[in-house]
């Protein structure tokens, strides 16, 4: 708005004006942020080192971190001792993903069965309810440590952790799906004497879809977070184990570098995998705000997932860029 | 072609009523019975698995754990550990809340919103583990480590809530206040703050829920006191029963804070909001 | 065309102190090419009557009979809220309620969409349409199964006055052409007078209080004096009932 006024009142040279308006755009601000982070990083390092000189050994510089990341990224393409001792970032994340897949599948199957039963029967619901809520609130750390004590190092601990952290989300969502079937649509279909089979196919199943999708999405995301913690304490390889490896080796730059990989992975998972699928599958849904999504995400995951559909502002009329998704 | 529906009038309305009442009562008892059975079942499995399926050392049963809790209390370790952890949580989360709220407020400016967009995104999606490890490796066992980890993991939740709350500010109510010449202070007190309060509270609840988990996680790596430290100690010494004792003690305490305290608070002060949601 | 016969219909909800009598001993005969409006204040059981007639609810006691000549078309039902399947396109929503899904029925559904001026919206999702358009889809859907009987439950009450007015006209045209029996619930007396041959009046507590024949010629212009007079008469009846009913 200010730009328009400026253009009308004081015509400037074309290029200068364009440059200035670009600087004022939120898009530019977004690009500025990583730069600001690095500057802050270097500045903070300088301050800390001047007060505590010994910290110079511990604190990694951006360059070192980038170096560590770069080595990992190009690892498959070069020969070297790195490849021999442990897997590179691709293989590492791949192995973790396989474990996640296994745990996720089990959590989905078991969780759906229990969730259906709880939604359909009040007795079953009473039976399981408190325990599902308890497991839901239990931090992944507790499972990870406990299972590492019980099962030592290997696959069992991490996979079980995935199941234990993810299954309550699946159960709660499926249960809510069953409970929230749209009665008025069933009545409508029945008043038109639509045969039962068609009602099941076109009314029941689609009405469960949002909840199903939410269950999948959250079992996967939460399962991932639980998996890496489990790998830290009870794994032999995988993403979590690797970052712990560097931590134990006191290689701060590698730890930070791997942390970036984690961040990247999480963003890819949320924004590049799940969001587009969500948008396509639920293109018929009206939009809801991100607050409602985040708000419900933990407290009432059922409702959150009910509404966790097209919460992407790139489809919204005001044309903003990406908004934050839970 | 005819469709006919016919029903005879039931003999006495009272028997129908009585039947209905009976059915409702039976349902309620049914629910209690099954709930009780659920506890019996799961605790039973636990107890059973402890002795038979896996060694007692690997999975101590509920009785053994209860005993251990008593022992630990007796030793006097509990208050110190709890105090250390809770202090970190409260300091860390307070800072996180302030930062999150401030960012949320200044994000009403679109340029600043763009600037912080990725920070919020990362904070929301990155696993807390990485912050725990980074702060542990950089700060060792200094108190500031867990605090920074808490801030990084939770500020975004507060920001999102505050931001939405401000965006949803009912402009017509504020205008009404201006039209009636209500002063700025009173306007804020009676319109803006009550409107924002539920959003702030939501941010508080979810942020806290995550904060305590991240704190314990960070303590496992870096601290020399606190719940996380005790958990790590017990793990390293292969004392599963002590480990479980600490976990469950803290877990129930945190659950208590989350559900009982905060939810009761919310229910009392924000009843009007729930009614709207239910409508 | 069809015959609807309701005898001694009684419907209660709840027990004891919470008991609600929705319909009290209702007797009603409707048949042929008529447009019957059911009017009354909220809570007088009009919607319940329709639910029972369409099979969604069962009566506590009494007899309901719907006779249709020839084929076995289910009654058409238009709801207050459109009740469209949000995950299917508009055209699919009409197809959903057909007995068979063939190319022929598809074409027929498309024709009914055109009848309500939504011929080009067949591939849209309900979420993309306005309330008025969704309601029109609901009407098209009800007509598309070509029923002999049509039940409509305050279909225009949620719409703005202008949309409602044009929809009333469309409805009237469609009724005139297709010669159906229509049972139309509304709280709007003016609407009832504009559209119906017969107005059945319910009072609070589910009692059928009056049965008024409206003899004015069609089409009726709401601005017409005779229509206004008829409306005033019905309203006066209302007031009388209010004094009597508790």
Put the structure in a nutshell:
By secondary structure, chain B is mainly α. Helices cover 84% and strands 2% of the residues of chain B. Chain C has 246 residues and is an alpha/beta fold.
Describe the structure in your own words:
The complex is a heterotrimer of chains A (326), B (279) and C (246). Chain A is mainly alpha-helical and 326 residues long. Chain A has two domains: 2-59; 85-315, MetI-like fold. Chain A has 16 helices and no strands. Chain A has helices at 2-9, 14-23, 26-51, 55-58, 62-74, 81-85, 89-120, 122-137, 140-151, 156-179, 183-191, 196-234, 239-248, 252-281, 290-299, 301-307. In chain A, helix 9 crosses helix 10 (156-179) and helix 10 packs antiparallel against helix 12. With 279 residues, chain B is mainly alpha-helical. Chain B has two domains: 15-59; 62-278, MetI-like fold (Orthogonal Bundle), CATH 1.10.3720.10. In chain B, 84% of the residues lie in helices and 2% in strands. Chain B is built from eleven helices and one strand; from the N terminus they run E-H-H-H-H-H-H-H-H-H-H-H. In chain B, helix 3 (77-106) packs across helix 8 (184-222), helix 5 (128-139) crosses helix 6 (144-167) and helix 9 packs antiparallel against helix 10 (240-269). Residues 275-279 of chain B have low confidence and may be disordered. Chain C is an alpha/beta fold and 246 residues long. Chain C contains seven helices and nine strands. In chain C, helix 2 (90-96) packs parallel to helix 4, helix 3 packs across helix 4 and helix 4 (131-144) runs parallel beside helix 5. Classes of the chains: A mainly alpha (326), B mainly alpha (279), C alpha/beta (246).
């Amino acid at each position: 708005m200010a730009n328009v006024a400026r253009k009308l009142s004081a015509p400037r040279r074309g290029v200068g004006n364009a440059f200035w308006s670009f600087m004022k755009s939120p898009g530019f601000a977004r690009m500025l942020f990583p730069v600001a982070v690095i500057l802050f990083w270097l500045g903070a390092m300088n301050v800390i080192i001047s007060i505590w000189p010994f910290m110079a050994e511990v604190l990694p510089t951006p360059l070192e971190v980038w170096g560590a990341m770069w080595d990992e990224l190009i690892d498959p393409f070069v020969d070297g001792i790195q490849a021999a001792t442990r897997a590179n970032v691709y293989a590492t994340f791949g192995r973790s993903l396989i474990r996640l897949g296994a745990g996720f599948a089990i959590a989905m199957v078991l969780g759906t069965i229990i969730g259906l039963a709880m939604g359909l029967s009040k007795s079953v619901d009473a039976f399981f309810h408190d325990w599902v809520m308890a497991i839901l609130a239990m931090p992944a750390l507790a499972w990870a440590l406990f299972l590492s004590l019980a099962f030592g190092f290997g696959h069992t601990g991490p996979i079980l952790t995935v199941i234990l952290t993810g299954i309550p989300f699946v159960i709660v969502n499926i249960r809510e799906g069953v409970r929230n079937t749209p009665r008025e649509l069933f009545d409508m279909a029945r008043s038109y004497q639509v045969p039962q089979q068609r009602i099941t196919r076109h009314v029941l199943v689609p009405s469960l879809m949002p909840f199903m999708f939410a269950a999948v999405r959250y079992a996967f995301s939460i399962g991932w977070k639980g998996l890496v913690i489990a790998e830290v304490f009870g794994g032999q390889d995988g993403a979590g184990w690797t970052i712990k490896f560097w931590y134990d080796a006191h290689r701060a730059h590698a730890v930070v570098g791997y942390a970036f990989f984690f961040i990247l992975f999480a963003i890819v998972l949320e924004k590049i995998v799940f969001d587009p699928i969500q948008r396509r599958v639920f293109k018929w849904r009206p939009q809801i705000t991100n607050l409602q999504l985040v708000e419900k995400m933990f407290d009432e995951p059922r409702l959150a997932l009910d509404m966790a559909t097209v919460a992407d502002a790139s489809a919204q009329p005001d044309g903003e860029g990406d908004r934050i998704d839970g | 072609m005819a469709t006919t529906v016919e029903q005879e009038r039931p003999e006495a309305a009272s028997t129908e009523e009585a039947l209905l009442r009976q059915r409702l009562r039976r349902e309620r008892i049914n629910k209690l019975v099954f709930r009780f059975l659920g506890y019996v079942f799961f605790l039973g499995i636990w107890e059973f698995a402890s002795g038979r399926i896996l060694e007692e050392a690997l999975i101590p049963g509920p009785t053994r754990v209860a005993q251990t809790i008593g022992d630990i209390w007796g030793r006097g370790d509990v208050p110190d550990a709890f105090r250390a952890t809770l202090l970190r949580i409260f300091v860390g989360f307070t800072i996180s809340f302030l930062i999150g709220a401030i960012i949320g407020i200044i994000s009403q400016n679109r340029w600043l919103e763009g600037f912080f967009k990725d920070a919020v995104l990362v904070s929301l999606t990155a696993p807390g583990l990485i912050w725990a490890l980074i702060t542990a490796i950089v700060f060792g066992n200094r108190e500031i480590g867990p605090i920074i980890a808490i801030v990084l993991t939770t500020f975004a939740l507060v920001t999102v809530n505050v931001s939405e709350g401000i965006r949803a500010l009912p402009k017509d109510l504020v205008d009404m206040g201006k039209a009636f010449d209500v002063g700025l202070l009173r306007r804020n007190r009676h319109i803006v703050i009550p409107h924002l309060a539920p959003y702030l509270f939501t941010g508080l609840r979810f942020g806290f829920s995550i904060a305590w988990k991240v704190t314990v996680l960070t303590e496992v790596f870096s601290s020399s006191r606190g719940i996380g430290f005790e958990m790590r100690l017990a793990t390293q010494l292969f004392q599963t029963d002590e480990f479980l004792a600490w976990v469950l003690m803290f877990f129930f305490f945190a659950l208590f804070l989350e559900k009982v305290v905060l939810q009761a608070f919310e229910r009392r002060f924000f009843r009007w909001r729930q009614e709207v949601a239910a409508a | 065309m069809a015959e609807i016969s309701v005898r001694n219909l009684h419907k209660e909800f709840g027990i004891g102190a919470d008991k609600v009598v929705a319909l009290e001993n209702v007797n009603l005969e409707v048949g042929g090419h008529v447009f019957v409006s059911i009017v009354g204040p909220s809570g007088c059981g009009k919607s319940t009557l329709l639910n029972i007639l369409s099979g969604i609810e069962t009566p506590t006691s009494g007899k309901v009979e719907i006779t249709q000549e020839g084929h076995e078309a289910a009654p058409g039902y238009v709801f207050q809220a459109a009740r469209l399947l949000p995950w299917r396109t508009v055209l699919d929503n009409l197809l959903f309620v057909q007995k068979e899904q063939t190319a022929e029925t598809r074409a027929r559904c498309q024709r009914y969409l055109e009848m309500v001026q939504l011929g080009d919206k067949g591939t849209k999702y309900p979420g993309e349409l306005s309330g008025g358009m969704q309601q029109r889809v609901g009407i098209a859907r009800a007509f598309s199964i070509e029923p002999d009987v049509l039940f409509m439950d305050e279909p225009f009450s949620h719409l703005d006055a202008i949309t409602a007015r044009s929809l009333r006209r469309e409805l009237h045209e469609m009724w005139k052409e297709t010669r159906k029996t229509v049972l139309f619930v509304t709280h709007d007396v003016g609407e009832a007078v504009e559209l119906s041959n017969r107005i059945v009046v319910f009072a609070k507590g589910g009692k059928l209080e009056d049965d008024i024949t409206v003899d004015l010629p069609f089409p009726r212009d709401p601005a017409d004096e005779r229509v206004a007079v008829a409306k005033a008469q019905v309203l006066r009846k209302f007031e009388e009932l209010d004094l009597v009913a508790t």
